[in-house]
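Backbone description:
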Amino acid sequence: MFGVEESLPIAASFILAGIVVLLFGGDLLIRGAAALARRASLPPLLVGLTIVAFGTSAPELVVSIDAALSGAPGLALGNIVGSNIANVLFVLGLPALVGVIGTQSKGVRRNALFALAAGIALVIVSRDGTISTLEGGVLFALIIVFISLLAMSALKARDDDPLLAEVAELEEAASKGSMLTTLVSLVVGIILLPAGAHMIVTGGTSAAAILGVSDAVIGLTALAIGTSLPEFATVVVAVLRRQADLAIGNVLGSNVFNVFAVGGAAGLAAGAAGLDLPVPDQFMRFDFWVMLGASTLLAAWIYMGRNVGRLAGILFFGGYVAYIAALWVMNPIQF
């Protein structure tokens, strides 16, 4: 297609353009769906914890589903694992070099454990080299459990959970606009999401073939960073506005949704096609453990009652640079 398989610049442009289309489409989908739900008089809490929460993970979800159905499991899982690593080490680490990210809210501790548990669950279901339809269903069921716990926290007015505050802010912003704007946003978002996902998968698999590396490497690096950009932007803005307590809730919530919702959906999609989702060997040898190490480090930092400041920023961001370097050393480019 347009020389994608022969040209690295074209393949890279497909990935970049796909990420832009994907993120723009995801934003439109959230705004359209949330506004439509509010017009149907659905409770704001229900809208925030379902449509908005799932909508923010829609880019990762459609990419992983498309990759799973296209026979590119490395992209599907690399997107999930790479995003979770980037969210902790890059998304929190780099902004912490210029501002402090608070970790003292009670909800943050619970969500840090959930994020760590999600990572452990992904490793467990992947231990035999595949994620079956049943295992994908179990992962997806766990996101319902997580949302239910968030709902119970909200109903008990425990508003110290920054993830709930983040969801509420997104829901309020997304639900404004006329009926025409709502419908246009919804339709365009629905069209752009799969289009962007397919562009990314096409560009990612072509780039991997041209560079002589696995598609997992593309998923763990370019794709993971690209789909983590909304979280990065949120953290940077929160730090600059001195509202950084909200930032960590966004990151932890994203990591939980990536594993349970996105990983579960990818496993179910592969199962619907009559296949188990294969797990590349590299993940069990290296990447899963980096993901768990980053999640454990963040959880320990939070439970020690320490904010993510400059020291943590140096440690986290330095760790991410080391991880990317190790990844490319282990997977040398072969033109």
The chain has a mean pLDDT of 80. The first strand starts at residue 130 and ends at 131. The longest helix spans residues 179-211.
